[in-house]
Amino acid sequence: MQPEFDPERGLWVASHPEAVAAVLAHPACRVRPLAEPVLGGSAAGILSKLARRTEGEAHRLARAAIVQALAALDLDEVTAVTRRLAKERDGLALTQWVFDVPTRVVAELLGAPGTVVPATAAFVHCLSPLSTPVQLAAADLAADELMRDIGALMAAPTGLTAALCRHGLPRDVAVANLVGLLSQTHEATAGLIGNRIVAVLRGGTQTEGPVINTRRFVSEDCTIAGVAMQAGATILVVLGKSGFGQGRHACPGQQLATTIADAAMAHLEGRLDPAVLGWTYRASANARLPEFFIKETP
After folding, report:
1. Which CATH number fits domain 4-294: 1.20.1050.10, 3.30.365.10, 3.30.70.1050, 1.10.630.10?
2. Which sign does the torsion angle of CA 102, 106, 109, 112 carry?
3. Alpha-carbon distance 245 to 252, whole Å?
4. Rounded distance, CA 78 to CA 72, Å?
5. pTM attached to this predicted model
6. What phi, psi does 86 have (nearest 5°)?
7. What is the pLDDT at residue 190?
8. Is residue 286 predicted with pLDDT exceeding 80?
9. Of the chain's two ends, which shows fewer C-beta atoms within 10 Å, N or C?
């Protein structure tokens, strides 16, 4: 099926797998609008340097460095670190555990202090159009803290930080993308774990992807999946189960995320009781992020 125009929202919607693949692969479909305003603030400074928010040569260089750095990871080490931290954080409520553990794993792989975990939780509010002015102000403060703490690792980089540094990215771009890795982990990997928990509580194994949609912005008049599009058009891409995306902006951290999620779920095996645990979803424009609660006894 072709993308369809939604007149109420003033955008195109691509939901069929073939249409989704066509949009994500088309060179005219960009990750930022043509006339996106230049925003101020520390958080915006980080976002402007992320591989997932750039195009052309800047995107190619940053993505190549990230892909190669992640490919050098020892996944057995990732599993061991996740198992250890999952056990250490057992005292947390389940929702906090789901967000805390994967972020803490990546922080350790980077050689970063544990303080980056709450800072990352505050920073991710800059990614949501639903965030309040207070949350956005806190995200800016968190961005300064993250840039300082991750930037300090560059003096004597180890682990995943060293692997990224070997690829010659400018320092500010490298730091921003390491912050981006933390923020993606905090939401997407936590969402992956959370949705696997929901699948267990429902009594099945079918898991929805944590990222349910993304947007692309058409940079020039063109034809996409048989539909004529004009420059400036917006396309809502419904990812469904392919939550890691496709094409040049597909998530390079899929293997890292699934390894962390596998180890986290192994730790929870036999502990998830559907008679006790309920769930709801955090307000989000493009992700499915479960939050868990203890059911009231009758």
Report:
1. 1.10.630.10
2. negative
3. 10
4. 12
5. 0.90
6. -60, -40
7. 96
8. yes
9. C
Cβ atoms within 10 A of the Cβ of 246, count? 17
Provide the phi-psi class of 247: left if phi over 0, else alpha when psi is between -120 and 50, else beta: left
Match 């995200």 to its residue by tokens. Answer: 139
Provide the terminal-to-terminal Cα distance of the chain, rounded to the nearest Å: 48
Phi, psi for residue 201 in degrees, rounded to 5: -65, -30
- Copy the structure tokens of residue 198: 């929901």
Cα–Cα distance measured from residue 141 to residue 41, given in angstroms and rounded to the nearest whole number: 9
Residue recorded with tokens 């057995």: 76
Q: What is the pLDDT of residues 153-210, one digit of tens each?
A: 999 999 999 999 998 899 999 999 999 999 999 999 999 999 999 999 999 766 677 8
Q: What angle do CA 95, 161, 155 make, to 5 degrees?
A: 125
